[in-house]
Amino acid sequence: MVQMNWRRLYATVQIWFMVLLTSGATALFWAFVIAGICRLALGIDENRAMLFIGGPLFLALLVWLIRSLPSTLRKVGMLSDDPKSFGPWFK
Fold it and tell me: N or C: which terminus of the chain has fewer CB atoms within 10 Å of its end residue's CB?
């Protein structure tokens, strides 16, 4: 009979959820702030600033944060141990 390692599944789901949630919220916040500053500084309308400045900036920040946040979140204790330390998926 095959059994699933639930602790490893929990650690994997927790890591992905925390990293995606934190990265998304942080990228959205900074893209909004920087697009707003550029909108005021350059005198462009809100829709163009959000579309042409905020959108690409959000995507770039999201990718960068997804790659860099797991080690930082693990250091501050917000993530579990590495899922590989829980052993194989099936016994």
Answer: N
pTM exceeding the 0.70 threshold for the entire prediction: yes
CB 88 within 8 A of CB 4: no
What backbone torsions phi and psi does residue 90 show, to the nearest 5 degrees? -115, 145
**Tokens encoding 37:** 């500053």
Q: What is the 3-state secondary structure (H, E, C) of 56-88?
A: HHHHHHHHHHHHHHHHHHHHCCCCCCCHHHHCC
Which residues, 6 or more positions from 60, have their beta carbon under 8 angstroms from its beta carbon? none
